Amino acid sequence: MKPSKTAENIETKSRRDPFEWVRQKVAEAVVQAEQEAAETPRQMFLPGFDIGAFPNHLNRSSLIAPIARGRRKFHRQAAMVTRKDCVLEYTGEQLDEADGDLIMALIAFAQPFPVGASVPLNRAELLRKLERGTGKQQYEWLHRRIKALTEATLFLEAKKPDGSTRYSIGKTVSFRIVMGFSYDDEGETYSYSLDPRWVQMFGNREYSLIDWDKRMQIGRGQDMAKTLQRLVATSADSVQWYALDWLKAKMEYVSPMRKFRKALDAACNELERLDVITAHKIEDSTKGKPQLSLWMPPSV
Description:
There is one protein chain. With 300 residues, this protein is of the alpha+beta class. The chain contains 11 helices and 13 strands. Helix 9 crosses helix 11 (257-273). The chain is globular and about 55 Å long. It starts with a helix and ends in a 5-residue tail after the last strand. The mean pLDDT is 89.
């Protein structure tokens, strides 16, 4: 039997380049390793965690943003706003802070199980944890958003200080925020599973613990305050500075900068009310660029 064109091409390239076979084998090993990581349930232990843990790279990105109600932007392999130490590409509906709350709750509810295993879901308990109530509309919202999270995929590459890759997730095997869910109409029972690679994103303590009680006290219509709460939790610095143009892009804010500054000021006032921050100021940086300065409460 004659060899295939692909085999002939590889053989020809191998004769021209003796390292071609090695590179091919390395590439195959990478694909196999990610396939195994995506299919093998893993236990995740997060010290001091009840609900409200989330990876820092995601907290610092525009994956979840305080968007206005209405029709959502649909991203298709879009490069999301991140810091320089991360590349994040996303396909799916733009996620809002309610989605962020839901993802954190699903991660918390899955803690007794290996990540990747099927998790039975008590929908009423989940909705109460989100302080959304348990009416018909809330059950419909939950079903709709879990479905959207199951359809959403992302690629994340974490970088070292020299720009090389520390690790990547979703490069060869799609990473879904919710790997899958099932619903039994007759028994009205839900179950879901999370991608085992969540464990890698939480690795090396690269996650923040969000004060859930304070988060649930943030006023309605103050999603920007929720975004800031997740952001400031990624750093232990007593004073934090963020460029306004970066914040505006991260928060998917499309109105003029003057409106953004006003909304940002209101969000910071809300965080001061809850003692998430102690003070804030919008001022020019040493380079003359507008920035948000935030002062944190003393650590306990």
